[in-house]
Design brief:
This protein has about 200 residues and is an all-alpha fold. The chain is about 70% helix and about 0% strand. Helix 2 runs antiparallel to helix 3. The relative contact order is 0.08.
């Protein structure tokens, strides 16, 4: 019996096991990075669409307040197009049930995120009042909250921290300020600005 050959076989088996474990660890880590990249790309596209929608909603409120009807009509056309684009981010729910006779993108029930935008669209066809402006602001907050729940910024920051070993935000608020000069610098923050 050749002990040298058995020892060599055992060493090679151990090396193979170590290499296999290392490759498995690198594969799993790489898959986590790929998964995060896919999630990030989707979130970035969604956030870009959200930013465009919110900018437009703010412009709609300002045009309504200033009685700029032609501008408002143009903005409503853009909002309608953004709602259509939003169907790719928030597809209808239960497409096999309701509205089977409709084209595929319109089958089922509209997602609540788009319902908030459709409600805003319809609201901005009305004559401006302060009540309507408050309702428009509230609808915008509801819409943003839906996107916020999809993007989950706090969870994303934790994932980034785990992947990059760096945390990109500090958990601080106004209550954390200790210097009077800092507090004085932001004290006007709670005063509602008035446009002239």
């Amino acid at each position: 019996m050749n002990l040298g050959a058995d020892a060599f076989s055992n060493v090679m088996a151990c090396i193979s096991l170590i290499v296999s474990i290392a490759l498995a660890v690198f594969y799993i880590r790489d898959r986590r990075h790929v998964k995060f990249s896919i999630e990030s790309e989707h979130a970035n596209q969604l956030l870009a669409w959200h930013a465009t929608v919110v900018e437009l909603l703010v412009a709609l409120r300002n045009s309504a307040k200033n009685n700029k009807d032609e501008e408002r009509r143009s903005l409503l056309v853009r909002l309608s197009a953004l709602i259509e684009q939003g169907r790719f981010y928030f597809p209808n729910i239960d497409p096999d049930g309701y509205g089977a006779e409709k084209p595929p993108a319109y089958r089922g029930y509209r997602n609540i995120a788009l319902d908030f935008l459709v409600a805003s669209y319809n609201l901005h066809h009305k004559t401006y009042t302060e009540r309507i402006e408050k309702q428009a602001v509230y609808l915008q907050k509801l819409f943003t909250s839906v996107v916020f729940e999809v993007v989950r910024p706090a969870e994303r920051l934790v994932k980034i921290h785990n992947l990059a070993d760096h945390y990109f935000v500090k958990d601080l608020s106004v209550e954390n300020l200790e210097e009077q000069e800092q507090i004085d610098a932001i004290s006007h923050m709670w005063d509602r600005p008035r446009l002239r």
